[in-house]
Give the backbone structure.
Amino acid sequence: MNQDKKHKTSKHWIFQLVSAFIIIPLALWFVIEFSKLVSKPYEEVHQWFLSPWHSLGVILLVPLLFYHGTLGIQVVWEDYVSDISCRKKLIFLTNFVSWIGSILAICACLFIYIKGFAL
Amino acid sequence: MDTKSGHYKPLSPHLSIYKPQITSTLSILHRGTGIVLFLATFIIIAWVLAIAAGQEVYTFLKDLLLNPLGLVILGGWSFSFFYHLCNGLRHILWDFGWGYEMHHVRLTGWSVVITSLILTGLIWLYGTGVIL
């Protein structure tokens, strides 16, 4: 194995580990909040989002989940898809979908926040 | 072995050949729950988008999530989360070099299964207002 590839692999592992460490407290917080909010009416959940800490939490959490998730899914593709060009396309697609998802979540949070105070 | 043609090569062992063991089963489950969690992130996005879209869209999504099928999905999601969290902590211990002894592997493995089931139960009791 050449030096380049070795660094790439250990970086993949370190980033997976570090993102996991950041996600643990954030995701625990979100799951506890979400378990209560999911059955609540619109006004209450909307009010929840108007707290800057809550929306900031979601804005940080979603991209981190997608980052950790794409690193993981990438390994799954690498393990089960032997055709290299097909594998690369699937990894690209996973990353693309994650970027779109993250951007949507961030925009939605900002939209709720700005609209909530402008009106 | 067919030495004449040299065509015979041993096939790599497939998952179906192994007897399920605590080690392999939990490893597969870690991957499976990881995939579930990746997909479930889109529920969070739908939820945030629904709030941004307004009351009608939000109520529609809420009713969808609280449908029997939706509840099964939420149940699977919550178990996946706690399992992946607990087994992830087990992975972190391994990363720091602890827990490779076979008896440790089995002990932490079963602890992960039991703890994640308990935590899943607790979050549902909390979410539905039975406790706290």
